[in-house]
């Protein structure tokens, strides 16, 4: 996500231009409190940002069950540090330094009946360590004295880093058969769509001269929803059409078996219904969000038509 944000900022021009400074894990490790605080404090002093966007997270959902302390440090406590650092920064114009942060559908238990979406103010009930640690981050920001805006999203994919789309492309060229769960529903969302919306939001928030310190939570996903099995079928079928010359080992939908979550038996629980209601976000920031299907086409073209540029 950080990569998509930086690429979009670099491409922004004229009156729409946004200058950005990216800090990676080497410079600002969220698990090393002192190094993190010192790097962020220095960056605030030299760059004088209006906003800090935190796109870093511990998001190894299953591994988090074995490393709860690390997950809580990175996803929870580091946000308290960030809020304090921002609060000590001198205000630019009327607004104090504001934080934009990403959270997840995993803060909900996913038990809402299929077809009903979670609103930002619905009761939260994370079931695993990852969701609990992300909720801790939301709470740290809400209790801090810097303005904060949390964007909960779901099923993120992009042409960069590790994600479901890239995993399916790899498996479809190496495995004779796939098994994918079909009882978890949500909205696949491209990092590019999130980044584009984030920049639109940053231009409008916080409202100039707003009273008190705003702490807000919004939902931000692509339009539409699907389940992981149907998503895998779409990824592989479209990819075979875009790049028929590749050595596909999965050559039909029949080779992608639909299974239930119980059969898959992942170490961490996953919400069955991850559908997030984004209508408040659309109204507040006048956004038009792409359908996941169009966002998928965009990412597959990037991955399959210029694959030599992509990190695995
Ligand atoms: N992926 C999803 O499906 C999903 C769903 C809902 C919400 N979200 C949220 O969306 C946001 C972005 O997720 P993403 O999928 O774009 O993640 P991503 O591509 O995996 O990016 C996470 C980044 O965090 C960095 N990071 C991890 N541990 C760190 C540490 N201790 N110190 C500094 N940096 C560290 C990673 O660095 P390295 O590259 O060096 O590991 C990586 O650059 C996160 O807040 C996540 O919780 C994601």
Could you explain the architecture of this structure?
There is one protein chain. Helix content is 39%, strand content 12%. By secondary structure, the chain is of the alpha/beta class. It has a single domain (2-309), classed as 3-Layer(aba) Sandwich (Rossmann fold). The protein is globular. The model has no long low-confidence stretch (mean pLDDT 94). It binds NADP nicotinamide-adenine-dinucleotide phosphate.
Summarize the structure.
The chain has 312 residues and is an alpha/beta fold.
Identify the bound ligands: NADP nicotinamide-adenine-dinucleotide phosphate
CATH names the topology as Rossmann fold
The computed structural class is: alpha/beta
Number of DSSP strands? Answer: 10
Give a short account of the largest sheet.
Answer: 4 strands, parallel
| Average pLDDT taken over every residue | 94
Number of helices: 10
Total tally of structural domains? 1
Shape designation: globular
CATH first level: Alpha Beta
Order of strands, main sheet, comes to 1-2-3-8
CA gyration radius, whole angstroms: 20 Å
The CATH superfamily bears the name: NAD(P)-binding Rossmann-like Domain
Under the CATH scheme, which architecture would be assigned?
3-Layer(aba) Sandwich
Distance between the termini: 15 Å
Low-confidence stretches: none
């Amino acid at each position: 996500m950080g990569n998509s944000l930086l690429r979009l900022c670099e491409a922004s021009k004229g009156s729409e231009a946004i200058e950005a400074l990216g800090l990676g894990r080497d410079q600002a490790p969220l698990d090393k409190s002192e190094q993190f605080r010192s790097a962020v404090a220095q960056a605030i002093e030299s760059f004088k940002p209006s906003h800090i966007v935190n796109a870093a997270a511990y998001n190894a959902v299953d591994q988090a069950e074995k490393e709860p302390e690390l997950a809580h440090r990175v996803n929870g406590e580091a946000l308290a540090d960030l809020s304090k650092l921002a609060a000590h920064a001198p205000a630019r114009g009327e607004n104090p330094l504001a934080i934009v942060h990403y959270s997840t559908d995993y803060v909900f238990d996913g038990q809402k009946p299929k077809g009903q979406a979670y609103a930002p103010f619905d009761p939260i009930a994370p079931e695993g360590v990852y969701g609990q640690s992300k909720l801790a981050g939301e709470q740290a920001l809400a209790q801090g004295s810097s303005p904060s805006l949390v964007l909960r999203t779901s099923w993120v994919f992009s042409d960069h880093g590790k994600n479901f789309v890239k995993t399916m492309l790899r498996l479809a060229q190496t495995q004779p058969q796939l098994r994918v769960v079909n009882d978890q529903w949500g909205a696949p969302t491209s990092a590019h769509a999130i980044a584009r919306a984030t920049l639109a939001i940053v231009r409008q928030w916080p409202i100039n001269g707003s009273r008190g310190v705003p702490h807000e939570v919004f939902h931000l996903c692509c339009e539409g929803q699907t389940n992981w099995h149907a998503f895998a079928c779409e990824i592989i079928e479209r990819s075979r059409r875009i790049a028929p010359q590749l050595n596909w080992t999965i050559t039909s939908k029949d080779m992608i078996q639909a299974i239930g979550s119980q059969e898959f038996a992942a170490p961490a629980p996953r919400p069955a219904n991850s559908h997030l209601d984004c209508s408040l976000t659309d109204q507040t920031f006048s956004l038009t969000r792409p359908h996941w299907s169009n966002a998928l086409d965009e990412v597959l073209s990037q991955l399959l038509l210029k694959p030599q540029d992509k990190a695995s």
